[in-house]
Known about the structure:
By secondary structure, the protein is α/β, with parallel strands linked by helices. The chain has one domain: NAD(P)-binding Rossmann-like Domain (Rossmann fold, 3-Layer(aba) Sandwich). Helices cover 47% and strands 15% of the residues. The chain has helices spanning 17-29, 44-48, 64-78, 101-129, 150-170, 205-218, 226-237, 250-269, 271-274, and strands at 8-11, 32-37, 54-58, 83-86, 91-93, 132-137, 175-182, 194-196, 245-248. The strands form two sheets. It has a seven-stranded parallel beta sheet with strand order 3-2-1-4-6-7-9, sandwiched between helices. Helix 2 links the parallel strand 2 and strand 3 (54-58).
Amino acid sequence: MATADSRVWLITGTSTGFGRVLAEQVLKKGDSLIATARNPQQIETLVADYSDRTLAVQLDVTHEEQIKAAVEQAVATFGHIDVLVNNAGYGLIGALEEVSNEQIRRNFETNLFGAIDMMRAVLPVMRQQRSGHIINMSAIAGFTNELGFSIYGGAKFAIEGISEALQGEVAPFGIKVTLVEPGPFRTDFIGRSLDRATHQMAEYQPTVGKFLQFLNTIEGKQPGDPVKAAKAIIQIVESENPPLRLVLGHYAYSKFRQKIESLTQELDAWEDIAANTDFVDTPVVH
């Protein structure tokens, strides 16, 4: 039974992977849940034991009418939405030259535009209630990309940029925004949730092929524990001052720090040329 201070979560893509594990942990904690999936039959077992505080909704985030219906059902059932988790998505591996136009557009429709449409549908609810928390599931590839993830990481980079600005836009309404950047976690991402380029080229085997080989090697042995990740997400939702970025796992932390160091070195190396391109009589803007 939900308590007076329990939260209402709307999580996209709860049939498998991070979304499924997070949904399970949210329900075990005692919160209420709008669980969504393209095929609601895949989440029947998830909601069966918590029917009094769970709503299963069919939702493909590439269909705006389904997004609108899901949000309306959530508000009609629970009266409010406290947490939106944009989790629905999938990977795409292949060099930019190898992936098809259809693959590019489909990946962006799900990973980027689907998340945008979800936020735009939920924000009026959160603004009216003057509270809420948007969790955008990014990836470490959304901060420091990998060879072969030009499209997937590109979509996540866009979510990162949007979230940075959104955080300031919605702060006056009591709404918080957090990006979650996991490294390799033991989910089905590499298997079921990873699309592959339709046209593989020998020229990219030493680069993209090497990264794909790495992914295949660690499948089933990823160091990240999805349950611990879910609990970390719940913890930051309960925090008074949640971070903009939640980097999950030692692999992601290492990659994140390497990127910061690389950026700093490059910035310093080219400062004399790059920074001195203003008109000489223009005051410095900070």
